[in-house]
């Protein structure tokens, strides 16, 4: 069993945009030093010099607590080989009351509070993981791609809401699609006909050219005739001057939407290429419902530091799939977690939904939870919780997913089932 290291000094950093306040305390809560550093290379060198003056060494680096897990300062601190703890600002606010009930606040005081958090409760907080640079790069791209998807959805909804006010024909032409304006044909037609008047004047040849240039290769003639028929129906219209103005607004919104679509596609391609270079990619994508992109999102959030989640329960709590129990007196309430990694939880919902059709065992598990009274989201969350535990095991043992082992349920005879 690894012996716990005795911490002689701890450091707290109150982060700001252009400067940072640093405090170093000893094991008895005595303030050893305080310093305000600039947010540049000179400030970082001053920080290292201050830590070295109070016992910091490559073999025994002083741990650091800070309220953020991102930025150049955090990256450089992690590269120095020391433990860096990203403390939630809400937790810092509660620790602050232990030192001053007057509710006074200052940057220096917050730095001291952060240092004392490590001095007293370092074992209750988790240091930032020692992930490989490859995983860090995958995380940057995967999160950027996920943000781009959310931006694309917002841009789609904004454009769709605008079109409903004056141009319902274009929405009706692609109403069978879940997100109608994601269709390349819809965007190509909007670019040449941003108003109902221009759509009604489209010739068959021009519309056919737009459909072909959008990438359609089959049933071009039939698609052209269908769209023309929709445009030439009788629709409610805005006044001509207002309609032209709204058409100009459509072109502006369409440019934003096109940019978001291209960003999603480009980032997805780069994320997948980088993810496939990681040795864990083969294990992750062996799970039903995990394609290359969703697998990259999973790896980006859990990382490849095997010491980060010692048990599967730790990973499940981090993802928000494990329930949380609140007890007080005779009251006991079990509910889902609200404090979680939202990106991992969102990816988990997609994973569990896709696994329903990709894995008979996952589908049977989902049906069993529904028959026991779970609602749709609760049953999906429970399935994600189970498969996340299986993923933790497979990554720890370096083995691929096996359907029989993962969902090994005893079979019932027809007589038993009838009974």
Layout of helices and strands, plus pairs?
Elements: E1 9-15, E2 19-26, E3 31-38, H1 41-52, E4 64-66, H2 72-79, E5 84-86, H3 89-99, H4 107-121, H5 133-164, H6 168-173, H7 184-192, H8 196-200, H9 204-213, H10 220-231, H11 240-275, H12 281-284, H13 292-302, H14 312-319, E6 324-328, E7 331-335, H15 342-358, H16 360-371, H17 376-397, H18 403-406, H19 414-418
Parallel strand pairs: 1-4, 4-5
Antiparallel strand pairs: 1-2, 2-3, 6-7
Helix pairs in contact: 3-4, 5-11, 5-13, 7-9, 9-10, 11-13, 13-15, 14-17, 15-16, 15-17, 16-17
Please provide a written account of the structure.
- This protein has 419 residues and is α/β, with parallel strands linked by helices.
- It has helices at residues 41-52, 72-79, 89-99, 107-121, 133-164, 168-173, 184-192, 196-200, 204-213, 220-231, 240-275, 281-284, 292-302, 312-319, 342-358, 360-371, 376-397, 403-406, 414-418; strands at 9-15, 19-26, 31-38, 64-66, 84-86, 324-328, 331-335.
- The strands form two sheets. A five-stranded mixed β-sheet has the order 3-2-1-4-5. The protein has a two-stranded antiparallel ribbon with strand order 6-7.
- β4 (64-66), α2 and β5 (84-86) form a beta-alpha-beta unit.
- The longest helix is centred in the middle third of the chain and has 36 residues, at 240-275.
